[in-house]
Amino acid sequence: xxxxxxDFLQKLDDAFHxxxxxxxxxxxxxxxxxxxxxxxxxxxxxxxxLSFHSLRADAHGGERVxxxxxxxxQVDIAVCRGDKPxxxxxxxxxxxxxxxxxxxYFENMLGExxxxxxxxxxxxxxxxxxxxxxxxxxxxxxxxxxxxxxxxLGKYIVISKDNPDVYFHTPVKTLLYIVKLPKNKDLxxxxxxxxxxxxxxxxxxxxxxxxxxxDSGIVLNDFETFITKVAYHIKSI
Length: 237
Description:
- The chain is globular and about 50 Å long.
- It has helices at about 5-20, 30-45, 100-115, 155-160, 190-195, 225-235; strands spanning about 50-55, 65, 70-75, 75-80, 85-95, 125-130, 130-135, 140-145, 175-180, 220.
- Helix 1 runs antiparallel to helix 2.
- The chain has one domain.
- The strands form three sheets. The protein has a six-stranded mixed sheet, sandwiched between helices. Strands 2-3 form a two-stranded antiparallel sheet.
- The protein starts with a helix and ends with a helix.
- By secondary structure, the protein is α/β, with parallel strands linked by helices.
């Protein structure tokens, strides 16, 4: 695996383990990965006239609010020239209860993308999923484990074929990153789940699993290719 991809996977692993201890509501899990994405893009662009805004693992900086076509939006990673935003990246890492919320995740992505791109700001998306996710009941018990399959990703297969020059609800480019953990179907609740996985690491699924399912709009499990394409697009502005 190329170094930038292995480093990205390690930051996802860091975020997952912060999630296990700090909980789903804490934004602490986002800091290592947001700052990594921002720094990787900065390194690709090598343009001192640009500034980069995101949550930071080192506590410096913060997310940027930009004016969309319809409303203001606080974006995860923003690139600015002077005070003017010239590009932004949205990031989502889903670790539980995916299937009941999958349409909402997708519709929200379409809406925020249209809002920003209609303001003539290129917008990119990173969507990360655990291949097997716990479904938590309100009590904290695990009702079942959900396995992400091709059917669940059908809407992403469709959007990967869209022309972003025609459809402004389509991100200019999307990174879909699917990671997995050692399986254990016997875990009963959030506590046993946390204790079992606190010393175990994320890995990528088999490369063949969703190979050739997506068109050019989506980059699958390849952060280095994605961030290079984002940088190339920004340089062309």
